[in-house]
Amino acid sequence: MTAVSFPGTSTVLGYPRIGPRRELKRALESYWEGAASAADLRAAGAGLREQTWRRLAGLGLAALPSNTFSYYDQMLDTAVALGAVPERYRSDTPEQTYFAMARGTAGLAPLRMTKWFDTNYHYIVPEIGPGTAFGPADPGKPLAEVREARALGYETRPVLVGPITFLLLSQGTAPLDRLDDVLTGYAALLAALADEGVAWVQLDEPALVADRTPAEPAAVRAAYDRLGALTRRPALLVAAYFGDLGEALPALAESPVEGIAVDLVRGGVPRHPALAGKVVVAGVVSGREVWRTDRDRALAPLHAVQAGQVVVGTAGSLLHVPYDVDAETGLDPALRDRLAFAEQKVSEVVELAALFGSGARPQRAAVPSRPRESAPAAEPEGRSPYPVRAAAQAGRLSLPVLPVTTIGSFPQTGELRAARAQVAAGTLAEADYEALVRAEIEHAIGVQERLGLDVLVHGEPERNDMVQYFAEHLDGFAVTRHGWVQSYGSRCTRPPILHGDVSRPEPITVRWATYAQSLTAKPVKGMLTGPVTITAWSFRRDDLPLREVMYQVADAIRAEVADLEAAGIGIVQVDEPALRELLPLRRAEQFGRGTREGHRPHPHPVVGGQLGGGLHAVLLAGEHGHPHGDGERGRLVHVCCPQQRAAIVLTDDLADRGVQARRARRLRRDADPSGVLLGALQAQVFEFVGEDDVGGPGVPAPGDVGAYVVGPLGHGERAGAGLAEESDRTEQHGDRRDHQDGAHQDEEHRTVTDPAVQRGPLGGCFGRGRLGPPPRRGPRPHPRPPHTTALGGLGGVRPGRTWRTRQ
Of 264, 358, 384, 734, which is the most exposed, with the fewest CB atoms less than 10 Å away? Predict the structure, then answer.
């Protein structure tokens, strides 16, 4: 038996914190706008924490977590607790310092932000370098939550980001070099919690399930040997989720920690003799998906775990799912009965714990059923040689050598958002709303023509979101009303639910693209979201292989491409900002062989597995079944990707199509650490466009644009992804576009009057040859927003309108 018993048979590793009706979002924005005090904000947070604990206890959960609440992000909270606050952010009050790091100030950029592993949540990246000064550890936040819960009658388990994950996800040349300093801070935090009478502390270490260098498991062993040897500390539960512990398992199992939480949804049952003396929290209820848990499939691994004490839990935090499916009264009842949001998942954990404790066994073998295959779409019969296609495109499009365009949407106005809400409420006629949409398209075309752009966009005023809009027009999807999850800070998203076979009952974008084209003699691009991004940013079905789900979506997008061409649209852009987001965390699982049955394999040897499935889905979306392919009609398909190295493998099969690789500020070798994708560039056509992330207000100098002209030019573009996420054309102070519903957001405000800024950042081109120079380094003169999940366009910023920074 274990030396320390875990308090109960059921727990969760984390819980949503934004509030069932986004109460925290509104409290944050009210505080940021100056309409509420710091005390008001703290009171709102305390109310949400109390609501969470009472609800978890009411559902029967045995062991409650605390310190899972955050006003912005848990990594930021950890940096503050360790005193790792860069001097430039220190301010008069703790709140001012905290939000300066998260959001920046006038003239000071925020800390960098990036995706939390393969989720759609974004975390703040701490700066930990050789010169980072760690202040005295501050246990104030976790201690305060322990005391709040205790006053309500609940003993809780504080949750902290673990030291290895904290350092590996921080920005620095060799962050693990500061491990000893960070462990000193953790020792102080653990001592303070032990003095408060806390029995258990959870340390989250999801970084351990990804590929690690040979030295890193040794660092894990050293870190937890040191923490485990402390005499003043609570019992330690190390939680590793999003996959299998792999080589880190022996280091943890043989350390003095009392418990390990493992992900049995994405990982296997851990096997190690030392687990016989430990608590294992067996994560059999997914914290990532929204489907009800199969009891038999969950019971089987529970009985397979060999440990001193087995506790039933979630595979990860429930932060990534909505609160309560019972609130979705508009969903089809048959679909709703298949779903489990956070509350339902807690109930599943409690129920499974009772079944497991009673000795219940699976009633049937937990063998995955054979997934059925969807019928492959017809493959194009072939294409003319590239020179023929290029000549046809040049003749049809008549573009200059280095054409200028923008990558997508203009900002949504407050008037548009209000009108969309009125249509949903039945207080505005559809015809009146469409008249407003046409007026916005006319404005977008006029702005681009005045600026002298060569390839125009219609601005996408009819779309509430780049994924939800298509989900609302495709069969096989459902959208929720209250299914919000936190993306970062106060930003929330409502992922669609991809629950059935996908098909396109009618054209989606054609009438708006053709209306825009009727307003100008210049070519207007058709604007589509790609199949990988639609799949990645949805809660997707689990009864088909992921690859097949993407192919179904690709077939629907391909049909839309064909209709756009038939309507006279000569250029189609397919946005794929999530091209790499469905990849497994371990590289060995990313590059398998294979492709869709009935379709040709991708010609490059590395394109297989999950990455190959995603890339092939993009290629399918770009085809349209014309017997001569796209070239002899003169159509150009443009694929907008978030990372240049992710785009390279596309160029083998898209030699006459644009592959726009955003040159985002945090592009690093981690996009392709082994260089295997970079090798695909040899002798391939590659478009190097989007000189910088246009989420920021900076404008590259003319010389910067020329730096990316890397060879003989074919078709080209000079605009990165854009400003729709981070700018607005509204008169109302504090009102900005939300990712999916246009609700009030926060923001710092900059009035933009410089015509150069209005035009937006430009840079890059198509070409054949070498890569251009690396991204610029060093601080920026203005605050810049994060590289967020949704991509936008030119921004349509008018003189005197507000420019907003990060939420």
Answer: 358
